[in-house]
Amino acid sequence: MTLRGNKPPVAILCGGYGSRLSEETARIPKPMIEIGELPMVCHIMNIYASYGFTEFYLLLGYKADYIKRYFLHFPILQGDFTVHTGTRETTVTRQTRRSDWIIHLVDTGMDTTTGGRLGRLKDRIDGTFMMTYGDGVSDVSIPELLAAHASAGTVATVTAIRASGRFGMLACEADNRVVSFEEKPQTGDNWINGGFFVFEPSIFDYLEDDFIHLEGEVLGRLSQARELTAYKHEGFWACMDTLRDKQHLERLWQEGRAPWKIWRD
Q1: Backbone dihedral region for residue 76 (phi beyond 0: left; psi -120 to 50: alpha; all else: beta)
Q2: For 168-194, how does the pLDDT look when each residue is reduced to its tens digit (9 = 90+)?
Q3: How far apart are CA 197 and CA 11, in angstroms?
Q4: Which Gene3D superfamilies does the record associate with it (predicted)?
């Protein structure tokens, strides 16, 4: 395992089919859909990197080869380069976007569930780490999230945000301990699962196989055991779940009103 100092690494779920966004995902995996000519997963990585968290595990599945090829050529894609056709030597001559990241690309299989994908990191991570989905952006403060997790002393912390009932709903006590987790309730507005998790390595004890779901099964069991804390975020959060969502994010970006853009180009 490679860690940068004492900075926890970040796992990003990038393996789903993205069926609700089939207009785009028939061609490319959902995390690679571009907002402002930058793949969604890079927006997410930039959020973390803005706070100094620059080691990433991308958990791949559907169209994994597409993501692998992109990051294999990532330094070149960030600027200008020169190719010597005889020696095949490639030299980057100018970078338009600068980054110094460690990116682990982990192929977790086509049909592995969210919990199963996360479980593939069991032998790679042995300390506190973070995780989020490859289709959600926010202006959440990562240092404050980590501090809240450390203070709570639970196995897991989930960023809770307010949105419609199409996401997993959290019921919290006064101390922010989650007492129930209901995946995608049919009605009602409440605190919901916004991703941007922090986990202790003991989370792997809850991930028995490739087919366990993080949301309905694992988070439910953690809440019953009082090992899940909610970090309540009242700021911006958005998920690129549909074409309408994508268009909304693109509009914010083009108008210079993207709240999640906390980094400098």
Answers
A1: alpha
A2: 555 566 667 765 666 655 445 578 899
A3: 9
A4: Spore Coat Polysaccharide Biosynthesis Protein SpsA, Chain A
Q: What tokens does 14 get?
A: 């990038």
Going from N- to C-terminal start, the domains of the chain cover 10-254
Q: Which amino acid is at 100?
A: D
Domain 10-254 has CATH 3.90.550.10: yes
Report which DSSP code applies to 5: T
Instruction: Please report, in angstroms and rounded to a whole number, the separation of the first and last CA atoms in the chain.
Output: 29
Question: Do strands 102-107 and 55-60 pair parallel, antiparallel, or not at all (unpaired)?
Answer: parallel
Question: Tens digit of pLDDT for each residue in 32-55?
Answer: 999 998 999 999 999 999 999 999
Q: Please state the pTM of the whole predicted model.
A: 0.87
Cα dist. 177→23, 141, 154, 173, 226 in Å?
A: 39, 20, 9, 6, 6
